[in-house]
Specification:
two-stranded antiparallel sheet, 5 helices, alpha+beta, elongated
């Protein structure tokens, strides 16, 4: 009898409190026709310029591993679920010449705590560092956008 009541309680909890997860993908994977735009920082002019890199920055362990870590850190915030908020949080990542995530900014919000969730997940995954971007055979500081989609479907 106790096993049946535990099973019924579990089923009731799953129906009343369905778990929603965030799905994540880099901006360029949202629209496969659109290529990621990398901007390179020029310390002499103190300006960012779009550039075609010799090598894009890559997370140590590979980008797939990076996104798996981000995904494992993500939970759909309760406030966003209750308000039925969905959409893309877009973050701008800045990777130094040494492969460190040196800046992370929210470019587009969804609300309900989604920005904080995305921000924190990226920070955790970025502790493994990156292989820096290369331009003309030299490591360069770059920034680019990534998108984290929050959907309750």
């Amino acid at each position: 009898m106790k096993k049946i009541s535990n099973a019924l309680l579990l089923m009731l909890l799953l129906c009343v409190f369905p778990k929603a997860y965030a799905s994540i993908q880099p901006v360029n994977q949202v629209d496969p026709e659109k290529e990621t735009i990398y901007e390179v920082y020029d310390a002499t002019t103190k300006k960012w310029t779009a550039a075609k890199l010799d090598r894009n920055p890559e997370a140590n362990g590979g980008d797939e591993n990076f996104w798996n870590i981000v995904n494992s850190q993500m939970m759909y915030p309760d406030r966003a679920q209750r308000a039925k908020l969905e959409g893309d949080v877009i973050l701008t990542m800045t990777i130094s010449e040494k492969g460190q995530l040196v800046e992370l900014q929210v470019k587009q919000e969804v609300g309900g705590g989604c920005e904080e969730e995305a921000f924190n997940a990226i920070k955790v995954a970025a502790t493994n560092r990156f292989v820096p971007a290369m331009l003309d055979g030299k490591p360069v500081k770059v920034r680019y956008d990534v998108s984290i989609n929050f959907s309750m479907k």
